From TrEMBL:
<dbReference type="InterPro" id="IPR045621">
    <property type="entry name" value="BPD_transp_1_N"/>
</dbReference>
<dbReference type="GO" id="GO:0005886">
    <property type="term" value="C:plasma membrane"/>
</dbReference>
<protein>
    <submittedName>
        <fullName>ABC-type dipeptide/oligopeptide/nickel transport system, permease component</fullName>
    </submittedName>
</protein>
<feature type="transmembrane region" description="Helical">
    <location>
        <begin position="128"/>
        <end position="149"/>
    </location>
</feature>
<feature type="region of interest" description="Disordered">
    <location>
        <begin position="1"/>
        <end position="21"/>
    </location>
</feature>
<comment type="similarity">
    <text>Belongs to the binding-protein-dependent transport system permease family.</text>
</comment>
<feature type="transmembrane region" description="Helical">
    <location>
        <begin position="32"/>
        <end position="53"/>
    </location>
</feature>
<feature type="transmembrane region" description="Helical">
    <location>
        <begin position="170"/>
        <end position="190"/>
    </location>
</feature>
<keyword id="KW-0472">Membrane</keyword>
<keyword id="KW-0813">Transport</keyword>
<dbReference type="GO" id="GO:0071916">
    <property type="term" value="F:dipeptide transmembrane transporter activity"/>
</dbReference>
<feature type="transmembrane region" description="Helical">
    <location>
        <begin position="330"/>
        <end position="353"/>
    </location>
</feature>
<feature type="domain" description="ABC transmembrane type-1">
    <location>
        <begin position="122"/>
        <end position="349"/>
    </location>
</feature>
<feature type="transmembrane region" description="Helical">
    <location>
        <begin position="226"/>
        <end position="245"/>
    </location>
</feature>
<feature type="transmembrane region" description="Helical">
    <location>
        <begin position="288"/>
        <end position="310"/>
    </location>
</feature>
<keyword id="KW-1133">Transmembrane helix</keyword>
<dbReference type="Pfam" id="PF00528">
    <property type="entry name" value="BPD_transp_1"/>
</dbReference>
């Protein structure tokens, strides 16, 4: 190894900080280019997977359009219009070109462009998933830390039982029990849908998020109705996600509490709470970022079962309805969107890694 190849030492960097900074800046375009290539390859693989799923589904897209009683001539005309008479590689290239132009096809069920339908239903799912992850992360992280701090004592056993129940109970069953108990019997929350029928269509704002739009419009009655309808499905989803986050947080914390630096901190006289929250918890934040981000992505997939139980007009119910009738343009676009959501959340996790852990910068 020559002198030019030798790694820089701390003295080299301090002696020539300008040169070191310039070398770091020269490395950044390469890293950015690598990330761009990685994202492009991932998106291409996602497009290929979506295309294959669309062709392997046991659904005839032509019959879904023309109906079972259409004549053979009509069938073949639509078959050629959809490009199904062309080789698969050519169909795939056409599909990629349409996606790059923002053309995701037209929904058979609604007769509108699929992207317009998804943009119309996605705010409902974002609102539901965001409230659910706030509940799940706040509850799960707190309970996980408490359980680890009281390992093998009664708080730990109680929290583990509660999290096990949340992870084991079918979410559709929990949703139905919640509706019967808190809506039908006690009347504490709203029923199905995003808002009471009396307020449907009363508020149409720019965001599509009913709580925000009703506040911007000054419609407090609509806001209260929307909140009453949101709290139960969001709490059920939040409890299910909190169960998983609790288990992972407890595992991460136990690993940190067994480290030598925790013993050193206690010997130095630091309080138990400061040792736990100020030292051990700080070192698991990076790991929790990934857990919370992926959990949020799972909720954004649509929370299909809970949206079905509560007749929530969101992404999950849209996907289910179109899957039932074989609307493959809508189904393929939904699958593609789910993949893009997880790619975006992974990128966001990488950014937060650099924020929370200076060693990765």
């Amino acid at each position: 190894m020559t002198a030019q190849d030798a790694p820089e030492t701390a003295s080299d960097i301090s002696a020539n900080p300008t040169g070191h900074r310039q070398r770091r800046l020269r490395l950044r375009p390469g890293r950015i280019l690598g990330q761009v290539i990685s994202i492009a390859v991932t998106l291409f693989g996602l497009l290929l997977l979506t295309f294959v799923i669309g062709r392997m589904m046991p659904v005839d897209p032509v019959r879904a359009i023309v109906g079972e009683d259409a004549s053979p001539d009509t069938y073949m005309q639509v078959y050629r219009q959809l490009g199904l008479d062309r080789p698969l590689w050519e169909q795939f290239l056409i599909y990629v070109g349409d996606v790059l132009r923002g053309d995701f096809g037209t929904s058979i069920r609604t007769g509108r462009p699929v992207i317009e339908d998804i943009l119309a239903v996605m705010p409902a799912t974002i609102e539901l998933a965001t409230f659910a992850i706030l509940i799940g992360a706040g509850l799960g992280i707190t309970l996980g830390v408490v359980a680890a701090a009281n390992k093998d004592r009664w708080p730990d056993h109680l929290i583990r039982i509660v999290s096990l129940l949340g992870h084991s109970m079918p979410i559709f069953w929990t949703g139905m029990i919640g509706l019967i108990l808190f809506y039908a019997v006690l009347g504490w929350v709203g029923g199905s849908g995003r808002v009471s029928d009396f307020y449907l269509g009363l508020v149409e704002g720019p965001t599509g998020l009913l709580l925000i739009d009703s506040l911007l419009a000054g419609e407090m009655e609509v806001f209260r109705s929307a909140l009453r309808h949101l709290v139960l499905p969001a709490s059920i989803l939040g409890y299910a996600s909190a169960a998983y986050i609790t288990r992972m947080t407890r595992s991460f914390m136990l690993d940190q509490l067994n480290q030598e630096y925790i013993t050193t901190a206690r010997v130095k006289g630091l309080s138990r709470s400061r040792t736990i929250w100020g030292h051990a918890f700080v070192n698991i934040r990076v790991q929790l970022v990934t857990i919370v981000a992926l959990t949020y992505g799972g909720l954004l997939e649509g929370a299909v079962l809970i949206e079905t139980v509560f007749a929530w007009p969101g992404f999950g119910q849209y996907l289910t309805n179109n899957l039932m009738i074989g609307d493959m343009s809508a189904v393929m676009t939904c699958v593609l969107l789910v993949g893009v959501i997880f790619i975006t959340l992974n990128l966001l996790s990488d950014v937060l890694y650099r924020v929370f852990d200076p060693r990765t910068r």
